[in-house]
């Protein structure tokens, strides 16, 4: 259908970007959305109804039979009448139906973009949870090794019971943190699965890194979408208002008549004009007000979205700068290795080692949170740029 081509015009990026490993899962979330399905059905029903209402009304058939009370004479007549609206009205209604279908297709794309964004945000939540789990798992390996070493030292009289207990508590706290993250991952995965997505298992490699997302502060994908939405809505409103004005023209009725009276048959034609309703001016006024209200709605969405996008671009730039500052120091787990060597070399005791571990954990979590918020902001920023990341 013609109006479906609008979607291809809006989002050319969908067909020229490299696919992320999550594309199929995002597509599942969109394809299985009841809101998307119901909107598609309503759009199609509205279009079919509009086309049906633009058809000729069925002809009217009349029959009359009369007889005289004082004689056996009878007379009868039969007629067939077809009403025809002013020819321009059919074209106006057809254009209004097509324009409204195009506007509905643009709105549907926005709904799909929102559903895709929700799926992306859920995926980013899961990736962030896996990143935090990986951090605690790496720390757990180090803590467990040193806890075992401290146990042997305590058994040989070279470590205090306080040092042993501190290490045991540190291992316990760390394992508890991992268990909590595992619970979060299950809950997040269940929520995503509730949207009709076959979620990959927790150990899948695709959870190990954030998908590549483009950032161009001059990108106008959102502006382009809103511009097309405004244009499509305006075209639909103007077309519908024009159709209402065309209804002010008279309706032509052409009738064929056949009568029988006094033993003779008569054939003839009748032509009549039905003048428009006195409420026509009120209908035109109502249509104009509805069009104006719809335009104001689009302007309001435009202002809100552009303000949000400006803030998101500033956020992405700021977070990118902070990430770059952290990356050289905390981009990998080499700091953990340095701490282990320092402890093994006698440069750190148990208390100092645990303090350093806590400092590293806090800093690394801050870094992971920066990455997480950076990717969230990018996903929101690219909402109308692609259904994929």
Question: Would you kindly provide a brief summary of this structure?
Answer:
With 389 residues, the chain is α+β, with helices and mostly antiparallel strands. Helices cover 66% and strands 11% of the residues. β1 and β2 (74-84) form a beta hairpin.
Instruction: Report the sheet with the most strands, covering strand number, pairing sense and barrel closure.
Output: 4 strands, antiparallel
Unreliable spans are 1-16
* Helical percentage: 55-70%
Main-sheet strand order equals 1-2-3-4
> What's the end-to-end separation, in Å?
28 Å
Task: Write down the Rg.
Answer: 36 Å
- Give the overall form: elongated
- What is the residue-averaged pLDDT? 87
Q: What report would you give on this structure?
A:
The protein has 389 residues and is α+β, with helices and mostly antiparallel strands. Helices cover 66% and strands 11% of the residues. The chain has nine helices and four strands; from the N terminus they run αααββαααββααα. The two termini are 28 Å apart.
SSE blueprint and pairings:
Layout: H1 5-10, H2 23-31, H3 34-53, E1 60-67, E2 74-84, H4 87-155, H5 161-193, H6 221-246, E3 251-261, E4 264-274, H7 280-330, H8 334-344, H9 350-381
Antiparallel strand pairs: 1-2, 2-3, 3-4
Helix pairs in contact: 2-4, 3-4, 4-5, 4-6, 4-9, 6-7, 7-9, 8-9
């Amino acid at each position: 259908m013609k109006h479906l081509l609008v979607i291809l015009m809006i989002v050319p990026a969908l067909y020229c970007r490299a696919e992320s490993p999550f594309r199929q899962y995002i597509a599942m979330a969109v394809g299985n959305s009841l809101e998307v399905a119901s909107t598609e059905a309503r759009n199609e029903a509205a279009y079919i109804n509009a086309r049906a209402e633009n058809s000729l009304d069925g002809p009217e058939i009349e029959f009359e039979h009369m007889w005289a009370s004082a004689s056996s004479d009878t007379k009868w007549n039969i007629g067939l009448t077809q009403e025809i609206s002013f020819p321009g009205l059919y074209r106006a209604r057809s254009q209004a139906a097509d324009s409204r279908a195009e506007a509905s297709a643009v709105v549907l794309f926005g709904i799909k973009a929102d559903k895709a964004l929700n799926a992306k945000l859920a995926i980013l939540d899961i990736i962030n949870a896996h990143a935090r789990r990986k951090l605690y798992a790496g720390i757990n390996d180090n803590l467990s090794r040193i806890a075992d070493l401290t146990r042997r030292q305590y058994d040989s009289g070279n470590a205090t019971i306080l040092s042993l207990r501190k290490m045991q508590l540190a291992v316990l706290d760390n394992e508890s943190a991992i268990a909590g993250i595992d619970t979060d991952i299950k809950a997040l995965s269940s929520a995503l699965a509730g949207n009709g997505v076959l979620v990959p298992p927790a150990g899948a490699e695709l959870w190990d890194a954030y998908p590549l997302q483009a950032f161009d502060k001059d990108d106008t994908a959102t502006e382009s979408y809103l511009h097309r939405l405004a244009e499509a809505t305006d075209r639909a409103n103007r077309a519908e208002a024009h159709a209402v004005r065309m209804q002010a023209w008279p309706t032509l009725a052409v009738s064929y008549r056949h009568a029988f009276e006094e033993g003779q048959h008569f054939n003839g034609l009748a032509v009549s004009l039905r003048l428009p309703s006195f409420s026509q001016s009120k209908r035109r006024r109502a249509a104009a007000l509805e069009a104006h209200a719809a335009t104001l709605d689009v302007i309001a969405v435009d202002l809100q979205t552009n303000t949000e996008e400006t803030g998101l671009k500033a956020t992405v730039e700021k977070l990118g700068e902070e990430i770059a500052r952290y990356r050289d120091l905390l981009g990998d787990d080499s700091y953990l290795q340095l701490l282990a060597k320092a402890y093994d070399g006698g440069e750190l005791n148990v208390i100092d080692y645990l303090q350093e571990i806590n400092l590293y954990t806090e800093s690394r979590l801050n870094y992971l949170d920066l990455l997480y918020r950076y990717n969230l902001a990018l996903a929101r920023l690219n909402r109308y740029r692609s259904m994929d990341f």
